[in-house]
Specification:
Structural class: alpha+beta
Distance between the termini: 79 Å
Helix content: 25-40%
Largest sheet: 4 strands, mixed
Radius of gyration: 21 Å
Order of helices and strands: EHEEEEHEHHEEHH
Number of strands: 8
Shape: globular
CATH class of the largest domain: Alpha Beta
Number of helices: 6
């Protein structure tokens, strides 16, 4: 065995970098006006994350986080939304909008506390299952069955003509 050679040692991981995301902020303002009015008072920081971003072999598109009390004191933000920069710029605007809409849906407002301040929290996903289970058992929970309703609503809305496009 060669002297000084270490077997099984992985090269150091590339450290991600975080950068401001003005493109995300701009789109978020429109989404908040259109469908996330409950976030109008929320202070949200939008960032890009560079480099490989995976969890258990799956690429992470973005992440919404509620800011801890200490970091809220230091930054005055309620949430941080971090977007995978490589995924963002590799996709068309409709996919970008879906990614951001997904992350903003995690950001939720609860009942006001005794001082009249909103209680912010992270909303979990409404649907979770394995494709293999759905293949074997179908849409077996109420949450999964809501997928059919959501798909039908999407199809109805997407068939409507866009406003302001007629001569």
């Amino acid at each position: 065995m060669a002297r000084g050679r270490r077997i099984g040692v992985k090269p150091p991981k590339e450290k991600p970098e975080y950068k401001d995301a003005p493109e995300v902020l701009e789109m978020a303002a429109r989404l908040i006006d259109d469908v996330h009015g409950h976030l109008a008072e929320a202070r949200i920081k939008y960032m890009f994350r560079t480099g490989k971003w995976e969890l258990k072999g799956k690429t992470i598109y973005g992440k919404a986080e509620k800011v801890s009390a200490k970091w809220k004191y230091l930054t005055e933000y309620d949430f941080v939304v971090t977007i995978n920069r490589d995924i963002w710029f590799a996709n068309k605007v409709e996919i970008r909008q879906a990614i951001l809409d997904h992350e903003l849906t995690h950001c939720s407002r609860g009942e006001d506390d005794k001082q009249g301040n909103p209680k912010w929290y992270i909303q979990p996903h409404s649907v979770e299952d394995f494709t293999s289970i759905i293949s074997r058992h179908g849409l077996w929970t109420a949450g999964l069955q809501n997928i059919i309703k959501a798909k039908e609503e999407y199809e109805q809305v997407s068939m409507l003509p866009e406003t302001g496009t007629e001569g």
